[in-house]
Specification:
It is a single chain. This protein is α/β, with parallel strands linked by helices and 228 residues long. The protein has one domain: Rossmann fold. It contains seven helices and ten strands. The strands form two sheets. Strands 3, 4, 5, 6, 7, 8, 9 and 10 form an eight-stranded mixed sheet that branches. A hairpin with a 3-residue loop joins strand 1 and strand 2.
């Protein structure tokens, strides 16, 4: 693969496909309101299928953590294992879980993002951890902890996230076409589309719906960038 060029920066670092690994974490079906169970089951399937379809050309290895395997300890262990693989130069994570203002909800219960930060900090993986893209509600609250844990860049929704239907594939598309992560998030934050989705969602969830994604960390990260 030829090196990606940027007019203002010249030749950018070139982390090749063979040096990239991706972890897709999916479990909306556990937790959440029972009346939306059908939707959460579809979202679980869709998150995996879209990631496999759109990201397979760009990663040596895509690992999926789903269903009742999505415990907080397994989440941390899987990140450590993938990041320590000698073939992996950078590890990215797509996180599809329910969230609350200070916590993420796993199959075995909730855990604060600060607790996850402490566990990942102890593993000292910042030389391998690169992107954490979260579709969880209140993911913007968790993003600083993931950057503190070692990820180069992280993002998430300000409050309840209601625009995953188009935000997820749009972000993945732009990420896979070597755009900066800032550009990928901007595409998903399309005001017209987001207003429609958030307005519809407020009929069920009230005024706590705000799907706008906030970025923490190095916004100009690309799929070819180093982790540090």
């Amino acid at each position: 693969m030829s090196k990606v060029r940027d007019a203002s920066r010249g030749v950018l670092p070139n982390v090749s496909k063979d040096e990239r690994a991706l972890l897709v974490v999916v479990n909306f079906s556990t937790g959440g309101e029972q009346r939306f169970q059908w939707l959460y089951e579809w979202m679980d399937t869709n998150a995996v299928v879209v990631a496999e379809l759109m990201m397979k050309p760009h990663y040596r290895h895509i690992d999926t953590l789903a269903g009742d395997n999505v415990t907080s300890s397994e989440f941390v262990n899987r990140i450590i294992s993938l990041a320590q693989d000698p073939q992996t130069k950078v590890l990215d994570v797509f996180l599809n879980l329910h969230g609350s203002p200070d916590a993420l909800h796993f199959d075995d219960g909730s855990i604060t993002s600060s607790a996850l930060k402490s566990q990942l900090q102890a593993a000292d993986l910042k030389h391998r951890l690169r992107l954490l893209y979260s579709t969880a509600c209140y993911g913007a609250n968790h993003a600083p902890d993931f950057v503190g844990a070692g990820f180069r860049v992280a993002s998430g929704a300000i409050e309840v996230n209601a625009n995953q239907l188009y935000d997820y594939p749009l972000q993945l598309y732009h990420w896979g076409t070597y755009k900066t992560y800032r550009s990928a998030v901007k595409a998903g934050n399309d005001p017209a589309l987001m207003t429609i989705q958030d307005t519809l969602a407020r009929a069920f969830f009230g005024d706590v719906v705000n799907s706008e994604k906030i970025i923490e960390g190095k916004k100009h990260t690309r799929i070819t960038s180093e982790a540090i």
